[in-house]
Write a structure and sequence with these properties.
The protein is 29% helix and 26% strand. The chain has 269 residues and is an alpha+beta fold. The chain is globular and about 55 Å long.
Length: 269
């Protein structure tokens, strides 16, 4: 069986407080994007995972391996021989790894008729990472808590063109959180997304990780400015970075803006 795990962007990202457990309280909106990896698996006598396309290990630290171990331990999922081809860049704030783990859960559930419904899969996915449950259904979703408390949002960007650009540098997530500005948002993300047109998001829908990311990777604000100059209705950084994206009302050629950086364009659903 072959599946194609997509990624996500964050529409707004506020860090509203520190938690007693050492994590942070967040407010964001996850929106699915069609930039995909490829994941294939067939039944086997023992588990194995080969990773291509990126410098990632297929060993026990790989999230796909962890996903299989969870389903094997909890529900008796048999071993598989799996191949993962990475197209979504690592360290980009796009959730590519979380998507791979969630896709492995969904695929094994189908392959071996484990009978897990969406709620059960989301519960298992949460053990892999806070944003993993989002990728089980992959619908636009408001997220709070550590990023695992979901609620609905009345939002569709269907038909808009998205351009995603990832520069060479990355920022470790832990480092990003150590330097992030914490505080209540000026406007709730849900209100912005549901009441303002995309063209009015600029200056209202913000990402709290941008100031530190812009300091560490000085080319980022320049890329965002170029996206706006090219006609973006809205542009921002995703997650804790370092990928940035622009939303456009019409098709866009970003090769000149990307200037040799990793990039992807496509239509949003």
């Amino acid at each position: 069986m072959v599946v194609f795990p997509g990624c996500k962007i964050n529409l707004g990202l506020n860090v509203t407080g520190r938690r007693p457990d050492g994590y942070h309280d967040l407010e964001t909106c996850f929106y699915p994007v069609g930039w995909c990896d490829a994941l294939e698996a067939i039944p086997s006598d023992s588990f194995s995972l080969e990773v291509t396309g990126a410098e990632l290990s297929g060993g026990p630290d790989n999230i796909c391996h962890k996903a299989w171990k969870l389903l094997n331990w909890r529900f008796g999922a048999p071993p598989v021989k799996a191949w993962l081809h990475k197209a979504i860049p690592h360290g980009a704030g796009l959730g590519g790894g979380s998507s791979d783990g969630a896709a492995m859960l969904v695929m094994l559930n189908r392959m071996f008729s484990l009978g897990l419904d969406t709620t059960a899969l989301e519960s298992v996915a949460l053990e892999l990472g806070s944003d993993c449950p989002f990728f089980i259904s992959g619908k636009p979703t408001l997220a709070a808590g550590k990023g695992e408390v979901f609620s609905s949002v009345n939002l569709s960007l269907a038909g808009m063109t998205i351009a995603v650009i990832k520069p060479a540098g990355s920022i470790p997530t832990g480092e990003a959180y150590r330097h992030v500005t914490i505080g209540p948002p000026l406007h709730p993300i849900k209100s912005i997304l549901e009441t303002m047109p995309v063209e009015e998001w600029r200056g209202n829908l913000t990402n709290a990780f941008e100031p530190y990311a812009f300091h560490m990777i000085p080319e980022l604000p320049g890329i965002i400015s170029k996206l706006y100059e090219a006609g973006a209705a809205y542009a921002s950084m995703s997650g804790s970075g370092s990928a940035v994206f622009g939303l456009f009302r019409k098709p866009i050629d970003i090769q000149e803006i990307a200037a040799g950086r990793t990039c992807w364009t496509g239509l949003l659903a």
